[in-house]
Amino acid sequence: MRFLLCVIGMVMFVEGLPYFAFPEKMRPWLKKLLETPESSLRRLGFGLMAAGLLLFYLGSRQ
């Protein structure tokens, strides 16, 4: 559970960094994201999940 909390904390840190460091550049990017078709967002989400699972698998092999 401790490791999971550390991982979630790091994800939240990485996700929040662009909003803190570049808020003026994030606003137009978010507007473009709202205009993106759902099918493209699903493909992107699936690709990120697959990459995350692959990294998890590679990192857990010791």
Q: How many E strands?
A: 0
Provide the residue-averaged pLDDT: 92
Share of helical residues: over 70%
Uncertain runs are: none
State the separation between the terminal residues, measured CA to CA: 20 Å
Shape: flat
Task: Give a written overview of the molecule.
The chain has 62 residues and is mainly α. The protein has helices spanning 2-21, 23-35, 38-60. The longest helix has 23 residues, at 38-60.
Characteristic key phrases:
62 residues, mainly alpha, 3 helices
Task: Note the topology.
Elements: H1 2-21, H2 23-35, H3 38-60
Helix pairs in contact: 1-2
What is the compact description of this entry?
The chain has 62 residues and is mainly alpha-helical. The chain is built from three helices and no strands. α1 packs across α2.
